[in-house]
Design goal:
There is one protein chain. It is built from 4 helices and 4 strands. A hairpin with a 6-residue loop joins strand 2 and strand 3. It has a 4-stranded antiparallel β-sheet with strand order 2-3-1-4. By secondary structure, the chain is an alpha+beta fold.
Length: 108
């Protein structure tokens, strides 16, 4: 069962976007995407609040998340969060089979 975590990074003076840009420029995002079990790791900036950046972080299993959390990359992430003085909220979702009735609402 896939697990997706939506992390909202909030800062001031554009710091959340600077954090995401540094994560990408430093190669950290590419390294996380290359980890076993990673399905998705993408940043988005809010249209309603430019001081908030959303990370959609999806993994094949809890075991894959636990391995990621135990990796040295977490120290890099923590240091960058501190550097940009970011605060976070998180929502966690599990992947369920799409209901057949929902398919009519999806445009492929």
């Amino acid at each position: 069962m896939a697990i997706t975590v939506n992390l909202r990074y909030k800062g001031e003076n554009g710091n959340a976007l600077k954090f995401a840009e540094e994560m990408m420029a430093s190669g950290t995002v590419a390294a996380i995407r290359a980890e076993a079990g990673n399905l998705r790791y993408e940043y988005y900036q809010s249209l309603e609040d430019p001081e908030t950046v959303l990370l959609i972080d999806s993994w094949e299993s809890q075991e894959a998340i636990d391995i990621h959390h135990a990796s040295p990359m977490m120290a890099t992430l923590a240091a960058l969060r501190d550097k940009y003085d970011l605060h976070m909220t998180a929502d966690r979702y599990t992947d369920l089979e799409a209901y057949e009735a929902d398919q009519k609402f999806l445009r492929q």
